Automatic annotation (TrEMBL):
Residues annotated as transmembrane: 32-50, 56-75, 82-102, 108-129, 173-193, 213-232, 252-271, 304-322, 334-352, 372-393, 399-417
Species per Swiss-Prot/TrEMBL record: Candidatus Eubacterium faecipullorum
One Pfam match: DUF4153
Top-rank taxon: Bacteria
Listed name of the protein: DUF4173 domain-containing protein
Keywords per UniProt: Membrane, Transmembrane, Transmembrane helix
InterPro entries: DUF4153
Transmembrane as UniProt keyword: yes
Amino acid sequence: MDNHIHSYLEPQSADISAKKNAHKLVLSKKDIVFVVLFFLAAFLIVDFVISCGFNLGFTVAFAALFAVLTAYLFNKNVKVSVFSYVCGALSLAGSVTFALYNDLLLNVFMLFLVCALFGIYICGISGVFKNRQGSFKMLLDVLRETFVSPLSNAPQIGRAYGRALSKNKVSKNVLIGIGLSLPVLLVIVPLLVSSDAAFESLVTLVLKKAGAYIAEIVLAVIITPILLFYAVSKKYNADFCSAGRKYAVRGAVQSAVTVSFLSVISLTYLVYLFSQLAYFFSAFSGILPQGYKNTASEYARRGFFEMFFICVINIVMIALANAVTKRVQSKIPAGVKALSAFILGFTVLILITAMQKMKLNVEIYGLSKNRLLVSVFMLMILVVIFFYIVHIFAPKAGYMQLIIILCSVMFIALSFADINGAVAKYNVDLYNSGETDAVDVDYINNLSDRAVPYILELAEADDHMISKKARTIIVQKIREEYAGQFTLPELNDLDTDIVYDPDTDFRSYNYARERACKLLEEYYNALSAVERQKLISQYQFDTGEYYYNEENDIYEYYADNYCEKYSYSDEQDMYVLTQKYNVTECYSDLYYSDSAEDY
């Protein structure tokens, strides 16, 4: 009996062991060597990006990470699609924009896009796509391989590296040798410092930055396993028990439900289209509210963002409706296709209307960065709708690749085109041409470093209400925002030039910032002492202890025993002292009495 039980259990135990060993990960020497390269890539990310921001350092660090992962994952036996290579190239191109411009909003969007394109590229060269790359399901593969696979396989990868290091005598010996050298260095280094001034200076410099470097090394040590789990899970994807599977979307909703749902939505949109006839034909004018006037400004403002969100909702709704509807002979029912096409066609009409509203909005209120970005996103939505309609009637036609490439190219091209400079130029040119009598100087100033040339231009505007703002901004940029980039004289020293002294650390380099600083240096140094006085005095008025009376366009200053009034002088093109009062008159109703002392 015991023998029988033993003979029954033994094969079962062997089967379990076989299953475990079947997926035991065995690493190669290449995997061990690349640990060092992954650590270096992680250190570059910390030192170049986290320490120095999203400038040239990000471009260099990303290129290094791109090269390391490509070298590690490239396999000549894996057939890589052109689409994957294009995504990789676009991710590199997108990373270059960080070295050119420094707009926070664009950088956030670009960071997301670069990471997404890079993720597609990595999945492509490692051959881990389980679904057709022309389908939206490829995005599920990218998400799975970016987040799920590295985390789920992390324990197995960690154990594999543990086994590899325990068997590697060379690694053990290297670590022992390094450990033994540390006590000796504690004796030798102080002696070398005492014996040579140059070495002493070098060690002192290193020790000053030791804390920062230690913190960066710690962060790099934390990031390295994340890169390892990500890379190894791609390279050995087929060896893991948790290897990805194809996502098969099987509709569970009856077509009658979907058709009814889409019919109600379509009918609502038909009623909306009918209501629009009131704008174009007098026979339908009774639909409009009593006394309604269809002015250009009203038309431009009202309903734009609502239309934009309706477009997004329609695309998501149609995608979900087609995904969950039960197929008939593996095909989407004709009724669902027809209604989907109608709603998407209506969405195109809504987009065209929204674009027209945006065009009028720009003509009336001027161009802004947000208006330009929304316009580009609307073009992207048109691209998505076009290829999705093609997909509805030709399901086997790949559409996701073209959508990703075209939309990515559009946004990267927009980033290279310097939209902040374009927006500033458009509004300043509009003002200079006389088509508008006002320009928002503060808004232009907020358009990153590329707006500096146009701030300098506005400082010479005929309208002193505009020029005074620009002058204050110029001094603020020189004295505050870019103070670390200049060698500056005392504020009231009007005879000494400023000197642009850029940061020599290439990691912090940014083309737009460098160009702005050079323009400011060139502009300020070309001014005479009198012209510099106009800048400095306006800066002191706006940032000092002066009160600006907007109604009377005067600056007022209150001291302990007197107060002063400064009014704008057309002749001197600046605010000058015109009246001074004693302490009694300052707070009396005799503000403009004959006892005031005129200047």
